[in-house]
Design brief:
Layout: E1 2-9, H1 11-16, H2 19-39, E2 42-47, E3 55-60, E4 63-68, E5 77-85, H3 89-96, E6 108-113, E7 116-117, E8 120-121
Antiparallel strand pairs: 1-5, 1-6, 2-5, 3-4, 7-8
């Protein structure tokens, strides 16, 4: 079964961390990636740039309209994700609990099963 583990970032929370705490998060993600690679459960992982560098695209009267920056006004934004393939939701939750962000109040780690990929419904 495939699951998306999304990481929701609150910049104010990250800014309040010490350099040592920030370094521990990076180190923790490195160890987590190695764990997933060794178990064969990692499909891919990606980190995203700050939402201020995003472009929001909509179509109005058949023409694209592009605005800069985040679409929603929110304290949190999607900071990155892990796409994994594991036995079941319980295993996905077990893995998500190993992500360093899960231990920091104000940061979010969400687990959602993939419903379909490449036009094919997942089992």
């Amino acid at each position: 079964m495939k699951f998306l583990i999304s990481l929701h970032i609150n910049p104010a929370v990250l800014d309040a961390l010490t350099e040592a705490e920030k370094e521990a998060i990076g180190t923790g993600h490195g160890k987590f990636i190695e764990t997933l690679k060794e178990s064969g459960e990692l499909i891919t992982t990606q980190a995203l740039v700050d939402p201020s560098q995003a472009a929001v695209v909509s179509v109005r009267e058949g023409r694209p309209v592009v605005t800069d920056g985040p679409f929603l006004e929110a304290k949190e934004h999607l900071g990155g994700f892990y796409l994994i393939d594991c036995e079941n939701k319980e295993r996905a939750i077990e893995l998500a609990a190993q992500i360093p962000d899960a231990a920091i109040g104000g940061l979010g780690v969400e687990v959602r099963q993939v419903m379909f990929a490449d036009g094919q419904l997942e089992a």
